[in-house]
Amino acid sequence: GVEPKEIQIRKMKNKWASCSSKGRLTFSHDLLFQPEDFRNEVIVHELLHLKYPTHNKMFKTLLNVYLKNI
After folding, report:
1. Average pLDDT, whole number, for the chain?
2. DSSP string covering 1-59
3. Helix intervals (H) in the chain
4. pLDDT one-digit tens code per residue, 18-33
5. Domain ranges of the chain
6. Nearest partner of 42 among 65, 24, 25, 21, judged by Cα
7. 6-68 belongs to which homologous superfamily?
8. 42 vs 66: CA distance, rounded Å
9. Contact, 46 vs 55, CB < 8 A?
10. For residues 10-17, average pLDDT
11. Are 8 and 27 in contact (CB under 8 A)?
């Protein structure tokens, strides 16, 4: 499993979320007003970045697997 060091919600102009190299996940306040399925996709995407910082093949494979199971 993965465990973020910190999770924060704030206004973001150009993206829905980000993951820092220090393990901090930041989510856009606007994400709260999006459909649940989309919110889940963004959350899973950022959690995967804690283990796989780039969008490599393993990242994409695991993202697809996890999204099929939620």
Report:
1. 96
2. ----SEEEEE--SS-SEEE-TTSEEEEEGGGGGS-HHHHHHHHHHHHHHTT--S--HHH
3. 36-49, 57-68
4. 999 999 999 999 999 9
5. 6-68
6. 25
7. Metalloproteases ("zincins"), catalytic domain (3.30.2010.10)
8. 12
9. no
10. 97
11. yes
